[in-house]
Each structure stands twice: as structure tokens, then as C-alpha cells.
Amino acid sequence: xxxxxxxxELPGITPEQLxxxxxxxxxxxxxxxxxxxxxxxxxxxxxxxxLIEAPSAAAAEKVHREAHGFVAEKILEVxxxxxxxxxxxxxxxxxxxxxxxxTEGQSRDPAIRTVLFTDIxxxxxxxxxxxxxxxxxxxxxHDTIVRRALTAAxxxxxxxxxxGIMASFISAAGAVRCASQILQEVARCxxxxxxxxxxxxxxxxxxxxxxxxxxxxxxxxxxxAQAAPSQILVSNVVxxxxxGKRLKFQSLGQISLKGFEDxxxxxxxxxxxxxxxxxxxxxxxxxxxxxxCAACR
Length: 297
What we know:
Elements: E1 3-9, H1 15-28, E2 35-42, E3 47-53, H2 57-67, E4 74-78, H3 80-87, E5 113-120, H4 123-130, H5 132-152, E6 156-160, E7 165-169, H6 172-188, E8 196-203, H7 214-226, E9 232-235, H8 236-241, E10 249-255, E11 264-269, H9 275-282
């Protein structure tokens, strides 16, 4: 049976009211051959996202309309594996609300995710210049570095893109720290042929696009393409979510990006290479042993 996700804009709704609404859905869902699995709630924004198995979007809407009248603003058909990749298959509380994985207590998951892209700079030219074997070694090095950083930052690999990786994070700060760790480890490597750029954006699962996290994925990809070698570009939402996290950004102002009608506020992450790398690169008068990155050993 198809799987759907919808979005409700319900500012001011209380947890008790949501629990009652979800319970009402469950009481009549069999009438329409529908199964309401769980929901995510962002109380700050007053938005609720429901995950539903249903024979059609119309059947899912009929349940909401009859049960409580909270009709969704939008409903999308989604693929189960994509939902799990971005949002996980975490537990729910007694009311059916999704909970954040890896947190103590009953912290509800607001369904906001930060999407990150990595990209090997000039990957096609590298293959032409270095040959297939050496280019594949660099790709494997990239994969090892990125996946190690994802594991350390609780990131989830969504897709391998050939010359980069798309990943998802519950924490925007975790995504930024992961991106910085990736570039720091690349800077520690003895190979000067590997250069990366990174882009990240944060958003909700159901937005303006017709795919789950579609707008967020598109923005993160465009920011990655816009970034210079060894640069991390993030959206304004990512920078705002990192307030108070002791992370530094440089505002680049509004930048026009392909596929976006309006200019986008963009920030560059201020990251620093490992101190031993900086020392070795800035002076030839000192004999400094620059450690190879772990992936190079």
C-alpha cells in the first residue's frame, strides 16, 4: 500500500490536543483502509507531519476530515526507504509522536534535518590527469574520511553520488562540525590532489517541492556547487540553528543560485586546519612532521 506524509500548520496546538486527534484517526482509519503510523511535531513552528499508509491521498484526507477536521495543507507520496534514511525508524511515545533517537527521556522529534553534500573538486579532470587507478584511490580516500566523520557526528549517509556523498543530520551543529572535521582531515593528508567542497541546508520533510526534503536537498546541492575548494557554505537556517553552539560563520550576503527564484542568504563556515598542517605549510625553516590523515595510513 502506498505511503504518504502530510503537513499541518496548527500554531498553538497542545500535546494533549495532538494526542486526541491522533487517537481519533486511529478509531476510524479502518473504515477507509488507512493506517496512521506516527507523527512528528515542531511546536515552535506549529507544524505537524503525519506518516500514513493509505490506498490513496484522498482516503487519508477523509480520515482526518471525519476524525477531527484538521485537514492537511499538503500530502506527498513517499518511499519507505527514503523516509527511514532521513527520519529513521525511531520509537514513538504513547500518543504516537516520533521521538528523537539517542536522547534521554521523551524528547519529541521536530522532523527538521540538515542535509549535507560533499563534492570532489574537478573529479573528471583528476581522472584524465591521474588515470583511473589513482582517481579511484582518491575517491576511496574521500569515502573513508567522510564516513568516519559521519559516524563521529551521528550523521546518516543517504546516497553516494559518484564523486561525493549526501548525508542527513538531526543536529545542524553536528553537520557543521562534521563538515569541518572532513576538511581538517583532508588537510592533514599528504595528497594535494584531493580537494573537497561542502554545502549544507536545513528544512522540513514536506515543503514546496514534491519530494520529501526536496527543497532542502536542492539548496544543499546548489550551495555545494557554489562553494570554492576547501570551503563550507551553509544556508541561513543552518547558521541560525547553530546560534550558541560556539561555531563561527562569515555572512556572504545574498547569492543567486540556480533553481531558486530569489537570492539566498549564504554563510561560510570558519574552520581551521590542524595546527601541525598550518605550521608545516607556513614555514620551510622548521622541520615539522605533518601527520598523514588516518585514512591515508
